[in-house]
Design brief:
globular, about 350 residues, 8-stranded mixed beta sheet, 2 domains, Elongation Factor Tu (Ef-tu), domain 3, Aminopeptidase
Length: about 350
Amino acid sequence: MRAASLTFLKNLLDAPSPSGFEQPVAEVWRKYVHTFADAVERDYHGNSIASLNTSAKKRLMFAGHCDELGFLVHYINEQGFIYFKTVGGHDMTMISGRRVKILTKGGPVTGVTGKKAIHLMTPEERKKVPEIENLWIDIGSSSKKNAEKRVAIGDPVVYDMSFQHITKDVVTSRAFDNKVGAFAVAEALRYLQNESLQVAVYSVATVQEEIGLRGARTSAFGIAPDIGIGIDVTHATDHPEVDMRKTGEVKLGAGPVILRGANAHPKVAALLVQAAEEEKIPYQLQALAGGIPSDANELQLAGSGSAAGAVSIPLRYMHTPSEIVSLSDVDNTAKLLAAFAKRITADMDFRI
């Protein structure tokens, strides 16, 4: 991955963006794509839309959501401890003992998620997954009045976990789900900037995917694409305690994952495979029978429907503070999207 692209990825990861509060990461994304897109727009929902060759009749939309898991300040008790709601699908066993940042109007406030120490638990309590009301954030305040000077009800919260190399190619951070998807749709547009295209290309950093695929729904309604590709992460299954008879086989570092199944238009899936093979981009296949819980679902069903597909980036330890991806998989995903777009012709018929 080129140095400027890696810096862009790190900037996306550094910018907090829990669902409903994506503005910081959206600003980073728009600033980057502005240098090579024909136009960059934003909508009422918060989606960021960059486009090329919009005079073309046929429309292609790439959607990668930029929101991440987080928390929302819900209640402050008399001792100044902060209780919170979860934003998105958390593993409750992973929350306690984490450094967090509360995003306030006065700037970030550092805190730590707390719960009763194991030494103070009864044998029965130790066996249970903690309920949300048994967890809190400690910001070092001595009272509710003191805490309320720094934090307000409704302030969003994110884990304070930054990007780190494990190897040259394997990296870890919070929020790879799905800032790598938002990265890939931006990079795909950069790869296409000097190409002669027969299709209009719209790359969208969608919002609020983690709470119901909401941004993909509104942005697809506005763009009305003929073809739509949802770019997200998928579970890498090449680690212990996974039964591949149930999950299928997806390897970290083996390339982007192309979906086959009801949520993947057969002509779109075939053209993605063709593009990968002709450009010598490594790829993997994944089979899922029904609609999938990602932006690709909304792209397929938006308006009167589109020829939808899904390309996924292998990821280990999804929805934890330390997710893992391969940088080569991320970069190859962007290259695959660009190769796909170049192969769409004005007379190509995706009706089935």
